[in-house]
């Protein structure tokens, strides 16, 4: 193994170099197989932008929480040269959190990369390739990030059992890129990836989720079928062969032995003197039963429900499809439907132009307007229902939205079921209130006319255009919410 | 042939007639015709004179409206449970809980029982994974019973709509009554000749026999198919002991505790009976063996002058042993005597005997029809009455004698697979309980 200190660190002696590697007060840079490797030990000194300069990052896991923070920061970066960086964790035998393991490219026992060289080279090559491409990918950028990440690793997105995930399974790369307000978004992104043909899925497991909040943190309660109480005691019954008495074990209990309450004989040998033919429960209210009713209690939303109300949600492993691999490199995706084809809609570039014009106009007129995004988050059930006629369904949805808007409003429909609406000369509070009504109307219409269900949701937010704002800053604000551009 | 029969009959002297038919005229007609029907008349007269007592008891019963625990233990009875529940739903008295114990069924009974329990049609369904026998299943149900009275039913029983009200009312007529037997009638009498003959037997022999013994205070068997017990008393004696014959055994234990045991003929329960003579023989062998096992072994003390001795208990067991066991062997002796001494005229003797029996049976049958609550349905038995002589006089007697011999000499009730071997073996080991 050829561990060399780089010139930037200025060390020459190998022994001193090794000593430096194990010195946790400072980061160190080593060179292996011609790769510049930053070994991160001092988290305070490590700034994300500075990581771009190195080919490989190795994070010392002596402080798991800080190491985890750094990993998350790298993978959630919007820049390809950062989030695609080859990152390894050196554990020195410590147990590494499965989420961190999912974010890293490998776990090292000690800072030696020899077995990962070909992987690192592939990562570097694809990262360089991807960086040079200017993407016209419309849709949530997280999806593009995901497929690029998977492509650069030639790996699949594997669900990791995790107590930190509300569903019980976590997709580490997506988790760090999605604001954890709602896990549904992770599922939606994956649904969109599948629907666009960028991802393929392979079944791994079913997880039983709360029907109210999709949480997998469920307490299973055995309750009395008559009064619903959870306080009950189960006992074996004992059948005394000699006299035919049958009753719960407590009837027979006498200090450390068993004695028949009917004939006073001592029971000595199971199978010879007695057997235990059944299990009987008695609740605090004196109800007897054998089959308790299973109820569920969601730790997340405190919903109590019947067992059959749980949602059996399939957990899949996701792999990049051929189309996904192509998109990862090209950054382009074939549009399902050109927005120009939809009457009354403009493309994103035209929308940006309108926005710039409006910004200038309001500065002249001293009147403010607003931009609203509406994000349709349709449930997997609804998407599945329309998997064969999705383009028609999507077109109908767009028309529904358009019909709710004023003639003066400019609307753009991005492929990822996101609508951007420019409302000139408007009060943002009134606009927000109006969009709330529009949202309710749309949800009702989706449910009644387009075969939707209660799990379909629409998020929206209205951004007031300040007189000092520029078009780009407004779009940046929106992007911070939905990572769409 | 008819001429030969007539000549033989006309040629008989009075002495020869009594020599040949002494068993009929000394034992059977006095006991089963004259005595029974005299008592029956007395019984109805008393009922008429005490009808106000019955009405008052009924009022007290309704005023209290006690909870009644209906126990129906059994194996592979799933298909019958729903019908039972429906017949209970039609009862005039509704304050009851239904406890079903599934004694290790290997069919769909657990699924049916559970679904009925979930639907609220039965109150408690307990499934024993391992079969323990009828007594243990009933005891498990008894353990969890909360009612003041226990009503023990076979799962294939169904009740007339006033059956519960009538059987429980008897407890309110006399506080010393510990258990009450219900009146069983055959539901599937049309299924086969064997079932039809049992229909006649239940109507003419079993019901009447129980009315008589109840009237005399020597009633000794509460049928498991339909019997009511005071819960506290039943729990005090530890419920049922290992069978077969557990019905008679538990009744005897009540008698020994000093409780009165009565029969309520107006509380009607329909039950299914074996439909072939071979199955019937098996059932009756089991029943008859229990006379030896329980009356002459386990409860032999009722004949002894112990501190618990009562005259009625002794008479109760004595009547049972005398008319069933002793007279069965006496009949055997009588038949051997006839075969040896009158071999040439044996066919004539039997033919005349059957004619006499038939005439007597018709007299009994019409008398019973007159007081039966469902005489129209029972009229169909009319054409089968001549066969009753063969059924009762020969078939049943032979079965009984076989049962007594098997039990007396071979303890065969302990080997009966009606009960699991694990319990029968233990009963045998521990003093032949």
Characterization of this structure:
The complex is a heterodimer of chains A (485) and B (433). By secondary structure, chain A is α+β, with helices and mostly antiparallel strands. Among the domains of chain A are: 28-132, 3-Layer(aba) Sandwich (Rossmann fold); 225-291, no CATH class; 348-482, 2-Layer Sandwich (Alpha-Beta Plaits), CATH 3.30.70. Chain A is 33% helix and 25% strand. Chain A has a 6-stranded mixed sheet, sandwiched between helices. In chain A, strands 11, 12, 16, 17 and 18 form a 5-stranded antiparallel sheet that branches. Chain A has a 5-stranded mixed sheet with strand order 22-24-25-23-26, with helices on both faces. In chain A, α5 packs antiparallel against α6 (141-153), α6 crosses α10 and α13 runs antiparallel to α14 (428-449). Chain B has helices at residues 2-11, 14-49, 51-64, 78-89, 109-118, 134-143, 163-169, 193-216, 231-236, 246-256, 277-298, 311-341, 346-371, 375-378, 385-410, 421-429, and strands at 68-74, 96-103, 124-128, 149-153, 158-159, 177-186, 226-230, 260-271. In chain B, α4 links the parallel β1 (68-74) and β2. Chain B has 16 helices and 8 strands. The mean pLDDT of chain B is 92. Chain B is an alpha/beta fold and 433 residues long. Chain B starts with a helix and ends with a helix. Chain B has an 8-stranded mixed sheet with strand order 3-2-1-4-7-6-8-5, sandwiched between helices. Classes of the chains: A alpha+beta (485), B alpha/beta (433). At the A-B interface, β12 and β18 of A face α5, β3, α6 and α16 of B.
